[in-house]
Design a protein that fits this description.
The complex is a heterodimer of chains A (137) and B (114). Chain A has 137 residues and is of the alpha+beta class. Chain A has a single domain, classed as Heat Shock Protein 90 (2-Layer Sandwich), CATH 3.30.565. Chain A contains 3 helices and 5 strands; from the N terminus they run βααββαββ. In chain A, a hairpin with a 3-residue loop joins β2 and β3. Chain B has a 5-stranded mixed β-sheet. The chains are: A alpha+beta (137), B alpha/beta (114). The interface between A and B is medium-sized, with 21 and 21 residues.
Amino acid sequence: MTGTTDSLLASNLESVDSVEALVVDAAAALGLDEDARMDLGLAVREAMVNAVAHGNEYSPDKQVRLILERRTDAVKVTIIDQGEGFDLNRVPDPTQGENLMRESGRGLLLMQAFVDEFSVKRTASGGAEVVLVKYAS
Amino acid sequence: MSARFTTRQVGDVTVIDAVGRFTLGEGSSLLRDTVRNLVAAGNKKLLLNLNEVSYIDSSGVGELVYSYTTVTGQQGQFKLLGLTKRVHDLLQITKLYTVFEVHDDETQAVRSFS
């Protein structure tokens, strides 16, 4: 089933879990195998955690916007928060020596590793907009 | 299912058996608590069995790093056992595979502790 849904979600971990499950279901409907579904699910989970925890800082006054596009050839997920956004080029590389043993900072690395297309930008209102695309093979 | 951790003693090595999803809000801090308590009690040879963990996110990876640095910071040893393919891939991507000592066989893993 193709189509687009656009929704606003609370900034909590329940939203993270529900969006991951929703996207994995969409990937299954597209015919992605289990590994690919889990790859997309993990990337989306990381993006949602970033939005909820780092962007919106769990604020009950801020929401996460989810745009889920079920296409015939791919699942496209756009996640937008109401935080201050960030510059991808300024994010420390977690695989480099001085950062390797940090406890956090690997979410963006994993997002990029587990989807076919990844982009991030700062929205006009200042938040972060992350786009993740996984194609059917 | 949230991650659960149980411990058992094999000689002087403490094996921590992990089961479930190892993600933010689903038990990742439980490992932190378990390791902290074990080290405080004098157990400094820890083997984390991840054979029943099929899913881990960056928060879970962070907890592995915390566990490693906590134990080695107390002159202990922290090793991993039984990585599933996904966890193995995750450690490769994050380049932490070079940091952790990883074993496939528990008997050999236990013997590897000095």
